[in-house]
Model the fold of this input.
Amino acid sequence: MNVLLVTDSFPPTCGGSGWSTYELARGMRERGHQVLVVSAAPATRGSESETTYDGFRVIEYRVFAPPVPGLRNYLKNERTYRILSTRLQRLIADERIDIVHGQHVMSCVPAVEAAQLAGIPSVCTVRDYWPVCYRSDLLHSPRGLELCPGCSRAAGIQRGRPRTGVTGLAMTMARIYLEGNLRRKQTALISADAVIAVSSRIAADLKARAPVLECARIQVIPNPVNTAAVCARAAATPPIAGPYALYVGKLAPNKGTSYLVD
Done:
């Protein structure tokens, strides 16, 4: 098959979602499939360039999204969905793509929409809570570790007492925008031919917090890992003499790094 992977990041400079996308691409290539990668990310100016990584063709698609609150949100979401979907449709036709796989928050919606218009199957991978939380993590604040106890569609904007004037209007408009944004993401998951949740917890929480996702074709498949490389590294000479601890992951409060140090 000719497979189009649409991702928010890809090696050599990326986080966990980019590396797991790479491992997926590597595994599909080993099984004889042709893989094309589109890596979309916000930037101070729009651009497109093609490069390679480990033999994979990678189209780096940069969307204009300056660091201006509010404006950046719209440009990296709704506007990106539209222009990236259009670009993906051309790629699908030019490269004779058989299936499109969206990998993360910026890439899943345009991947599904482009595949639908082209009449080919689509898949989405969900690694965190972006379909039910605009902030993607369900956390009240960077310091709090408890998940939002209720629906987080308003992404931290509390309904509380009605407000009037400019403040009330701004909050109402923000709430309408955020709820519409999440609705579009959820619609994409429902429309996809398959949705991959990387853990059973993610799968259960998505359905619990957005009952409409009961209609989505959600399957639990953990992130791909290069087990051969891990085993080889584990069997090699330790880099440090004596006992040591290894932490792999982003340094963030919700990752529990402070507990590891304690």
Summary: The longest helix spans residues 165-191. The mean pLDDT is 87. The CA atoms of residues 130 and 136 lie 4 Å apart. The longest strand covers residues 34-43.
